[in-house]
Amino acid sequence: MENQTILYTLVLSGLSDLPSHQLPLFLVFLLVYLMTLTGNLLIVLLICTDSHLQTPMYFFLGTLACLDMGFSSVTIPRMLFDFHMQKKLISIQACITQIYFFFFFVASEIVLLAVMSYDRYVAICRPLHYTQIMHWKACVLLVLGVFMISVVYSLVHVLFLLKLTFCRLTPLQSFFCDLPQLLLVSCSDTFINVLLILILAILVGGGIFALTFCPYIIILNTIMKMQSKAMRSKAFSTCSSHLTVVFIFYGTSCFSYFHPNAKTNSAVDKVASVIYTVLTPLVNPLIYSLRNKIMKISLKRVICKLIQI
What is the CATH number of the domain that holds 79? Predict the structure, then answer.
């Protein structure tokens, strides 16, 4: 350690080193970012202004839209800034801060998706008690619980990161500060950090994964017992959007971190990271708006009012 120079600034490799690619990539991701903010903000505004959408399910959906805006804002603005820089430098403090908020929004979305699964379970399997169980106080407490779990989860990672020193000049093979990439450039012993990632992934990730999907076993069993085709169709419709979002989020995140040769194929790694961090927050509002009749009716109502004005 005495002969090693401690670094206070790291280098990001970005998406491309070719100067000719910088402007087209900047325009593409700027458009994606604006579409992400617009789509999710539109969902939040519709839920806040339309009395038909002020129910627990749409309250959670509005929270998810807010998380998607925050999730995309953690990585894309920095990426857009780096497209104009010849050397993509980031300080250790800024890098760890980005990791904190990245983990916060990822954990929040994972836990919130589990809460939304529970909401659908109560609505379909215990409809007569739905208003008693999912009252507004319970909904607010559930969302506060989501944020508390996410704060603790991300804070644990950051506290152990602050104990590390960085002395390797190897650029991070990513367009944002990703924790596995950051550990590779540390000159400290990262065994505890890696162990922490595995333990929290198994305990928190695995536990939340089970809480997300287990209710759907009961839900599907309940739906299949329904005698009315209209009721079955309505039940499937309310669950299909949520399940689609869950599969996209878990599928892209697992592929991003657990696909074969993740450490040796940086190009595949970057593509997976783009899908996970950039495209997922973009498609979520599209899924909920295009697959939800009430949302489409509400949107048409707002458009008609705007046209009349």
Answer: 1.20.1070.10
Q: Which two tokens stand for residue 134?
A: 């999912």
Per-residue model confidence as pLDDT tens digits over 241-260: 788 888 888 877 776 666 55
Nearest to 112 by CA among 290, 298, 289, 284: 284
Closest CA to 239 of 217, 254, 210: 217
Reported pTM: 0.90
Note the residue count of the chain.
309
Q: Are the beta carbons of 61 and 112 closer than 8 angstroms?
A: no
Which residue type is seen at 268? Answer: V
Q: Is the dihedral of CA 18, 19, 23, 24 positive or negative?
A: negative
Report if residue 1 sits inside a domain.
no
Q: Which amino acid type is present at position 46? A: L
For residue 78, what are its two tokens? Answer: 């920095």
Structural domains in the chain (count): 1
Q: Is 308 exposed, middle or buried (0-12, 13-18, 19+ CB in 10 A)?
A: exposed
